[in-house]
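Give me the fold.
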Amino acid sequence: MEQYDIIIIGTGAGGGTLLHKLKDSGKKILVLERGGYLPQEKENWDTVEVFQKERYHTKEAWKTSGDIDLHPGTGYWVGGNTKVYGAALFRLREKDFEQIQHAGGISLEWPVKYAEMAPYYTEAEKLYTVHGKMGLDPTEPHRAEEYPYPEVSHEPRIQQLHDDLRKKGYHPFYIPLGIKLNEADRVHSECIRCNTCDGFPCLLHAKSDADINCVRPSLSDDNVTLLTEAKVTRLVTNASGTQIDHIEALYQGTQVLFKADIVVVACGAINSAALLLRSANDQHPTGLANKSDQVGRNFMKHLNAAMLAISTKPNPSIFQKTLAVNDFYWGEKDFAFPMGHVQLLGKSNKDQLTEDAPFFTPGLVLDEMATHSIDWWLTGEDLAAAENRVQVIGENIHLDYTENNTEGFNRLVAKWKHILAGIDSGDSFFPHGIYLRKNIPISGVAHQVGTLRFGTDPATSVLDRNCKSHEIDNLYVVDGSFFPSSGAVNPSLTIMANALRVGEHLLARMK
């Protein structure tokens, strides 16, 4: 077995970012990715291929309650799920790091606070070319400096919506977006503000994903080796169970072994938990690092709903995903509990609406609906619950999840419908317009966090504050597994910032 200084398993928001942080260390780094490079092909921008045929999602099936097959909305590629994410890169709010009382229970305090994370958020925003504008969102955490790139402008229909919301006393702001856009010089801009960004791979490589921004630039260093189609199947400890001795993997169909001083797992919150569970041995009979019985537990994915607001006003927007609202993040006058976050989605078309429409709905009707809709994404915080968990039963991943803390989120949805009706009431098909809501099912695991949470007490957490296993001295985790609570904004930037923070710790350790 060839010896490495560090092995990173996974290349998404956590693993890819960590690689970028360590690439200039001179240390011998092996990166193992179970997938390959997502092909750069015309189908990247084909709605039928991407959404109806799920071209870039895994074909594997997991199980859920009742032993029912679950087909997860996730993919295995260099760059992980950042290849198809919406690149909305939010910081958690300062209070998200504290213990918070919700209508449905309590979200846990983090062992690391916002002040410590802030410089890594700044570093991550620069690395992922985040566009935004500070000072508009009343819940915005303290920033030491302006966003590294200017805000992405609103198209006319969205600017009108922005102005109407401002007149009503609300505080819309620009979504912080990780894209390679130069609106001042569109000729030389990599991003062309197309309508196939949110949920699509970028054919132009103009979306800031972990593959393009972190992994590929790291491969020019001779000390970095990336193996694709290398699925890690087991972590093997030493006889005492205190160190990872070596890694077992299937590399292009053949079992191979790898060895390193430090092993970092970054497979995504579900697959990382499954890997530790599959690696059970005599010293760790219920799974590696699982003396606390917390491995795989406390799975969170947010309370999410997509909503189409349809009015007689046409919406010719192409790049729609530019506006967000946090006025109800912490509640409202008559409800003293958090409700959640509102942002625009990428602009839908009739092919995206087909799956959820009755089979007899004419294509012309779907086209008209898409033409006259504004597409919203609403997010609420779900709470850590032991019974919401990842298990490995036989050869299968089992994912059990029951929604909780729904009162505040349902209030947010109702509130947002009311606000939109008040803005567009004079131009609606009906007095309060048409609002089509779709809750995201358990298969929608894009915001997966929490299965290997970090903390100061080994009895209630899996990882310490540096995301090292309490029980195994050379095992770290840098994907969304470490979250003790989920907040109510997209987790990607926090995963990236934390990977940079852990990377700094590892650089000090490896000196």
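Residues 406-424 form the longest helix (19 residues).
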